[in-house]
Amino acid sequence: MATKVSKRSSGGAGYRAGAFPTTKTQLQAGTGLLCFTCSVCFILSIICTCLATLLVLVDQKVEAANYQYLLTTMNTESVPDLSFRLPKEVKPLHYDVYLHPDLEKGTFQGKVTILIDVLNRRSYIALHQKDLNITSTALNTYDREENFEFELLDLIQIPKYEMFVVPTKNELHTGLYHLSFEFNGALQPDKIVGFYSSKYKDAQNRTRYIATSKFEPTYARRAYPCFDEPAFKAEFTVKLVHPTGDNYGALSNMNAECTQINQPSPGLTTVTFAKSVPMSTYLSCFIVSDFIALTQMAKGLNDRQFPVSVYTTRTQQDKATFALDIGVKIIEYYIDLFRIDYPLPKLDMAAIPDFVSGAMENWGLVTYREARLLYDKKTDSSAKGYDVVTVISHEFAHMWFGNLVTMSWWNDLWLNEGFASFMQYKSADGILPDWGLMDLFLIEQMHSVFVTDAKLSSHPIVQTVSNPDEITAIFDEISYKKGSSVIRMMENFIKPEVFYGAISSYLNKFIYHNAETADLFKILQESSPDSLNVTAIMDTWTRQTGFPVVNVKKSGNKYVLTQKRFLANPDAHFDSSESEYGYKWTIPITYITNNTSKPTLVWFDKDAKDLVIEFKEPVNWIKFNADEVGYYRVNYEPTEWDILYNILRHQHKTLSVSDRVHFLEDVFSLASASELDYGIAMNMTAYLKQEKHAIPWSVATSKLTAIDTLLSSTISSSKFKKYVRDLVNDVYHEVGWHVSDTDDRISLKLRTTVLRLACSVEHAKCLKEAGEIFKNWIQDPRDIRPHPDIRDLVYYYGMHHAGDEAMWRIMLKKFTVETDSTEKLKLMRGLAAIRSTWILNIFITVATDENYVRAQDFFSCLIAISDNPVGTPIVWDWVRSNWEFLVNRYTLNDRYLGSLIPSITKMFATETKLNEMESFFARYPDAGAGAMNRAKALETVSNNIKWLAKNSRNLESWLNSHVQNN
Ligand SMILES: *[C@@H]1O[C@H](CO)[C@@H](O)[C@H](O)[C@H]1NC(C)=O
Ligand SMILES: *[C@@H]1O[C@H](CO)[C@@H](O)[C@H](O)[C@H]1NC(C)=O
Ligand SMILES: *[C@@H]1O[C@H](CO)[C@@H](O)[C@H](O)[C@H]1NC(C)=O
Ligand SMILES: *[C@@H]1O[C@H](CO)[C@@H](O)[C@H](O)[C@H]1NC(C)=O
Ligand SMILES: [Zn+2]
């Protein structure tokens, strides 16, 4: 059947096409022929299976020690280190995967035949599986004169490494083999990783079951035995079985090529998908559902057209149009930017009712949480539009960066995630230039990760990982957000034209293969006309923890810059010899002055004591880190801060939005770290009375509300609130609660930001209006809901300010019957806002029931209750007494469980709380993927305690001199 496969040429680029030429013929042939060849394959595969001797090997649990024993007693030339990594000498080339989920029973049956290339003589093959029952195994020679089956010894399971070993009786020679398994497993409904089932209610209130998958990073092994590491790329031919009729269908990475009704038995349909390009196992995807598609054509290179589709449940199709429109524009943007075509014949997006992360970039079949993808112009807020756009633009960036070229190992995850997290703004800004996305980048990515990275508990972007818990744990802010921030900095100092040219070369060079961080840096360096040593520069940012603050001292026309590591906690000590780079960075220093608005770039080398910038003529003012492109803070002397403050106060528009945002971010962070007097930071806020842009207000809101919460138990609390109320009052009246159709994106954003801030500092008018809108709605029998933009605020502050038990019960009812996932979350947060301990206790109990709150949303529910000051202690008590329930439900491997603790303890500020946390961690020492989160939580709380001790006096005296009594 198959033609000759040439032996692997060493180091050659390009994958081995033609290993399965039948499929190639199929691709070119018409549909009729497709089904014909396909059935032939099918029959052949049945014959094959029948010929295979069925070795039934039941569930063996042999410990790793036995494996070692066995291997050492076998006559193998190279016994591998028994480790989490598979031996490199057996490479998968092609998977024939057959999966038949039984949606009602919640189980699946599968078969896989893997074409492997054995590169050395050996007597065993190791690969991954977890929680599968392997019922049959066969190993056949492939493509020889006479093919034969090998005699195998019993399979050996190595649960610790999620591996198993297929030992052969006689030694295998190098060459190609077919390794086949039959197996079955459970569609695990609660785990929501691997191959799992999900359910939803349709328009007729019938429960509908679907099966779907989520494999990154190490869950493909739960669906089929495989070589589950990103560097083992192979082609895939997938067959899926779905119920016939009732709108059921199957989806996978590639397009369906052939559909056979009544296969494997009456009532079932088998779909065969086209053979894929070479890809990593974590990108494979299988869906059996009754979803329906909305499709539009996108333009590829050379006038090629390909369909982009959004799959949703039947009732939600009209919510898919926004995502589809954006999807087409984004994929075309990337094709144009990278000058490399999207390589698959189709691109699907599917909105999944239960989904563990926001979205997953399965090649050709991107899966999303429903709430992240679907957009209803009538009921969704304008803020949600941003989320939909940026999640699509993130996932589509992976089609090249991650899928076409993949990190060799998870150590370099940041390259995938950092790049996609930067490109998600860049491409979205490209198609929606008036949405202010690059300013938004600062708050959502850089400022957010500055918080984490200013702690001793942070870690370098590049770090060693081996086991599944560690791999899961690096899907964190550092990989995503610090990654995106340093990539943005690099794009800027290399210059965009050169940068994207180099990215394109990198993608072309490693197409269908894997690469490491060093490979990208090398290409960037070769492309850079300024002969920058990109590797040497970037290593200081990616291989050590943290980031610098640059201190500026002025003397005459000279500015003398020095650098030191920035830490949020002023008392934190570190040993600079811990870092290979001594916690010094090679910093691209940029600046603008009153003379030049175009930034000048100069390099501050990590080994230099200081950097001196001298002007021939004096300058009135200078601002470093133009547009906050660099991943560092800047501190000036008080006199310079005064000058900058005056610029803001009198002509804030001289500076860009990003520069204003940068000032607010830095003054508060520096003050909080005792690098700057709080008075200077507070002085800076006075300019906000003139500020009309959403993003500076957004930074101010997060800084001011954080102080507000920390001060809440002190005597300064009410004065502080009053100060903020005065600041926000003018702009509050300007934006108001009425949302107009003609408001632009930035005004819409400004409104919600300002209302949130005003309500949170108890602006009387703001709360009163929220309460009135809330009561009108809750008593309205027609249930006409507030405008989507202000809806969450009305639910939250309305309930908080004016809600009682009766209203809460009405809202709970609305929440229970709500089918729209976004609206449901808003109602859930509203329920969490009531100022009643006993109702909040009831709410937690209700929320543990899947019929009320989906498992995926339970953490958000707990965090929402905990964000309500009345709920904070309740949630803390509940989590501590129900920890085992949480671990059973989600596993210690779950990153959302890991991040629960820091989320609910972030505002603790007493020794008592700190002790409670420590004894809780001592009681449950195994933190799994949450170990770093625990350290982070403890550090946050002790910082809070110190913060109060250090700053509450100081702020009190500033408030006394700036806020009149009444
Ligand atoms: C695996 O097989 C065992 C024994 O036959 C059975 O008890 C178990 O439920 C099976 N597990 C799955 C996931 O099918
Ligand atoms: C849907 O069915 C559930 C019980 O399965 C019932 O409680 C609910 O009222 C039904 N909803 C509608 C809209 O028919
Ligand atoms: C770049 O810097 C690294 C480390 O500092 C050094 O080993 C390497 O030789 C440099 N490369 C070039 C091209 O200068
Ligand atoms: C910038 O400030 C310097 C010093 O005050 C002044 O001499 C110069 O004219 C200013 N430049 C502009 C463009 O205003
Ligand atoms: Zn991603």
From TrEMBL:
One of its GO terms (cellular component) is extracellular space. It is a lipid-anchor; GPI-anchor; Single-pass type II membrane protein. The record marks Y480 as: Transition state stabilizer. Binds 1 zinc ion per subunit. Its cofactor is Zn(2+). It comes from the Eukaryota. It is found in: Cell membrane. InterPro entries: Aminopeptidase_N-like_N, Aminopeptidase_N-like_N_sf, ERAP1-like_C_dom, M1_APN-typ, Peptidase_M1, Peptidase_M1_aminopeptidases, Peptidase_M1_dom, Peptidase_M4/M1_CTD_sf. Keywords: Aminopeptidase, Calcium, Cell membrane, Disulfide bond, Glycoprotein, GPI-anchor, Hydrolase, Lipoprotein, Membrane, Metal-binding, Metalloprotease, Protease, Signal-anchor, Transmembrane, Transmembrane helix, Zinc. Its main location: membrane. The chain crosses the membrane at residues 33-58. The keyword Protease applies. Residues 322-541 form the Peptidase M1 membrane alanine aminopeptidase domain. Residues 621-941 form the ERAP1-like C-terminal domain. Homodimer; disulfide-linked. This is Aminopeptidase.
